[in-house]
Sequence to fold (145 residues):
Amino acid sequence: MITAADERLLRRAIGLAARAVTLGDAPYGSLLAGPDGEILAEAHNTVRRDNDISAHPELKLARWAARELDERTAARTTMYTSCQPCGMCAGGIVRSGLGRVVYALSTEQLVELNPGSGAWPAVEQEGPALFDEARAPIDAYYRSS
Fold:
């Protein structure tokens, strides 16, 4: 359930998205708040500026949290973001251990506003293959840990 405090922080994320546009960046902004609502970190999309397809604010913050927060603290944080995280960012959020995400626009709403966004073609994948060869470094790593 989204609270008034959530709405305040979500408005801040939307403000970060608006600021990104004034800087020539894509209109996406996010922030990470601790359990008490204190803003821990903020980011906006810098894909074009950095020439980096992974420079989404959600992924930047997930990476920051994985480096800077212990597991218990990360699990008690909330990410506020102007748009629903894409698959790449969602994966990073899960791996970083963040506890919750609150977003303003859904992916469907974003696609309605900008039909080109989210219209990524599927990439053909083939496999599995070479199981015995591929498992060797995995086995070696986990046996040594």
